[in-house]
């Protein structure tokens, strides 16, 4: 009997410790809201098979990545995946992450971004932009 009581006590104590570890920090600290903003651009080159134009746009995207409000950047090309829902008609994908919409608005008017548009926009026939913001959550 004593062994079962001890086991039960340890189980209950462990559950209480887990519950307090997950609940107390949330109630003990003020909530910190994280508002992630994602800016995803798809570039369609005028001459998609022109290696020089591809290299030039890639050069420009690497310059653009230096805008200080950008948290993370991903430059990509269409993946070699084959499912009916996958769009692969673009030349380059540019995805960048910002802490919030204010940081993204600073990016939009930053001289590096404006210079990028002026210097490289002649290479593409169109761009498609998807901006998204995640639901606010506690960090």
TrEMBL record:
Query: Per the record, a Pfam family?
Result: Dabb
In which domain of life is the source organism classified? Bacteria
Q: Which residues form the Stress-response A/B barrel domain?
A: 37-132
SUPFAM superfamilies given in the database record: Dimeric alpha+beta barrel
InterPro entries from the UniProt entry:
Dabb (IPR013097), Dimeric_a/b-barrel (IPR011008), TAT_signal (IPR006311)
Entry's transmembrane regions: none
From the Swiss-Prot or TrEMBL record, give the protein name: Dabb family protein
């Amino acid at each position: 009997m004593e062994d079962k009581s001890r086991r039960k006590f340890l189980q209950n104590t462990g559950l209480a410790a887990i519950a307090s570890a997950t609940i107390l920090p949330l109630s003990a600290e003020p909530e910190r809201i994280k508002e992630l903003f994602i800016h995803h651009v798809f570039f369609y080159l005028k001459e998609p098979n022109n290696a020089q134009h591809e290299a030039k746009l890639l050069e420009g995207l690497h310059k653009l990545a230096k805008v200080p409000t950008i948290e993370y950047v991903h430059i990509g090309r269409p993946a070699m995946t084959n499912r009916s829902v996958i769009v692969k008609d673009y030349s380059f994908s540019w995805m960048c992450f910002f802490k919030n919409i204010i940081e993204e608005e600073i990016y939009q008017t930053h001289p590096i971004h404006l210079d990028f548009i002026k210097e490289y926009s002649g290479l593409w026939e169109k761009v498609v932009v998807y901006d998204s913001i995640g639901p606010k959550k506690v960090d």
